[in-house]
Amino acid sequence: MIEKLKAIIGDAHVLQGTDMARYSQDFTHSYRWTPLAVARPANTGEVAAIVKLANETGTPVVPVSGNTGLAGGARAEGAIMLSLERMKTIREIRPEARIAIVEAGVVLANLRDAAEQHGLIFPLTFGAQGSAMIGGNLATNAGGSNVLRYGNTRDLVLGIEAVLPSGEVMDLMSELHKDNSGYNLKHLLIGAEGTLGIITAAVLKLVPKPRAYATAMVAVPALGNALALLNRLQEATGGAVEAFEYMPRSYVEAHLATINGAREPFDDAHEVNILVEVGATAPRDAEPGPDGQTPIVAYFETVLAELFEAGEVIDAVVAQNETQRNEMWARREAAAEVVMSRQPLQNNDVAVPLDKVDTFLTRADAKVDDIDPGAVAMVVSHLGDGNVHYAVWPNSQNPEKMAAIMEAVEEIVLDLGGSFSAEHGIGTSKLPSMARRKNPTAIATMRAIKSALDPNNILNPGKVLPDG
Fold this sequence. Notes:
Elements: H1 2-9, E1 14-15, E2 37-39, H2 44-57, E3 61-64, E4 80-83, E5 90-94, E6 99-103, H3 108-116, E7 120-121, H4 134-140, H5 147-150, E8 157-163, E9 169-172, H6 185-189, E10 198-205, E11 207-208, E12 212-219, H7 226-237, E13 241-248, H8 249-258, E14 272-280, H9 283-286, H10 295-309, E15 315-318, H11 322-333, H12 335-339, E16 349-351, H13 357-371, E17 376-382, E18 387-393, H14 399-415, H15 431-437, H16 440-453
Parallel strand pairs: 2-4, 3-4
Antiparallel strand pairs: 1-2, 5-6, 6-10, 7-11, 8-9, 8-10, 12-14, 12-15, 13-14, 13-17, 16-18, 17-18
């Protein structure tokens, strides 16, 4: 097998032994494995040849891009780990059509930088964008901080190219915004975590880069006031709120204790702290007036002042320059480092209806305290889309208590009409959750699709679908 891989992509791009070290654990360091080899193809033809060989020999293949996943989706014990990192070409950026045609190994931040040269952005953004790659973003249907305005990854894709488990290449590189010609296979593969096919390229939507931002840290009396704040800002700005991120006092304190140079968001401490950002694309909102102030910022401050007078806002700090804006974002984007600063860790990535986030947190905190008194919930939330990252630092390392916490959180989420997986995917860490909570008919349908496309079960086996 190794010699055949070398014949396809060259000796230098088939890694073994100590050369595989950085591919043998995940971002969280919770999972470790030893691949059979790491194969680094340079193009779609080489990916297809590797997958065809694996299918003929029954060898498992686990695709990996930036390896920034949080759910164990890249575990590859004894498998060919197929890294797409060499496929990093931005083939085209077409400003008039507002599309980018890219390969799967393009780093998200690099695509964003390239789009900005044309006054455009690819609006997917999150803390790991400096190393996360487009292939992984599509495989997990990544979310992030701008879902509120632009949607998940799936909403930003016009077309894909993918290698199926047979080694055949499926060309769906459509640039169309409307196409009703049969089943939407693009959406089937996006979010499938590499279990149905390996996405090798994509046609992505670009949007105008905001000419100006109004960014602020806002404190409200209670979390229940936050939704009213969001709705008021959406009405006032014509739906231009890009981010609405919740950080409770406990997170702020952990951030101060973990990150060198971190500062308080306000002069006074508040329990409910929200990072709000509005993006203005119209020149009338973005060009400074005679007084030097940007209209969107001035209007934003006026709205906040009105809410302050009404008692719906108790404190606010509006960024006056890019340095202050970056400091506000750095506080939120340090979440992974803050949350993983203590072990053990029981991590939950859930979604509930927007008006039930406060209810979820109240019930979850009470239940966790019942199960493990002294455990600490470390919460951040994409509050504008109902996605809550509910991590728990247990008071003990008792695995039964940790499992009980996860099940209790799931029970509350489902009772509120939510999902136990919002944006991180299933991987291996949430297989028990899938078995417990996903509709049995839905799982059976997924298994039928997997069996039809991958009868030899070579693509990322043991992920997404629980045994059964």
